[in-house]
């Protein structure tokens, strides 16, 4: 089977499961799509999923991998399932509501912006971008563009999009689910930086000293 077709099937299954859980949490198809902002969340999610097929990246262990970090996949999987269902359920229950449709549409905008930021580094790195913490053949230290200011723009995009999804349901439960991604994400960044430091030595340490992990001046 062609690699692109395999990738398309994987993306379709993951997005299908994610959206199905949200629809279930909202009380069914009609209840979910009764709100335009929630409908927009689906449109943006599908568009980002389609775009992800063409930006590159892989799941190769490459030349050298930190296998001890693979536990984060299980953590992200569980958080993802809960993050798909619970905000929609809380929205239906009226639990911890925020401030109306303005919050919902802010969520849609953040989902789109964060998703684009998530995909941009993948497009820049291409086959060097792996879902695993690994050194790839021809691996180079990229320090231009967004990488000149922050070391993990893709992870920043991931957090922004997770927050956007949560806000799209107008409930603080969605915000809490987005924040739940931070501990495994920090563990992932720690593992990546250890591996890159061992590979690039002083060059990476100098780069790390002059940049922020996610937000300049903050972290």
From TrEMBL:
Methyltransferase listed as a keyword: yes
Cleaved signal peptide residues: none
GO CC field: membrane
Organism: Methylocystis hirsuta
PANTHER family per record: BLL3993 PROTEIN
Source organism phylogeny: Bacteria, Pseudomonadati, Pseudomonadota, Alphaproteobacteria, Hyphomicrobiales
BP GO terms, sorted: methylation
Membrane topology: Multi-pass membrane protein
Keywords tagged on the record: Membrane, Methyltransferase, Transferase, Transmembrane, Transmembrane helix
Protein name: Isoprenylcysteine carboxylmethyltransferase family protein
Transmembrane segments: 41-59, 71-90, 102-120, 155-180
UniProt subcellular location: Membrane
Gene3D superfamilies (UniProt xref): 1.20.120.1630
Coiled coil: none
One Pfam family cited in the UniProt record for this chain: ICMT
UniProt-recorded Gene Ontology molecular function terms: protein C-terminal S-isoprenylcysteine carboxyl O-methyltransferase activity
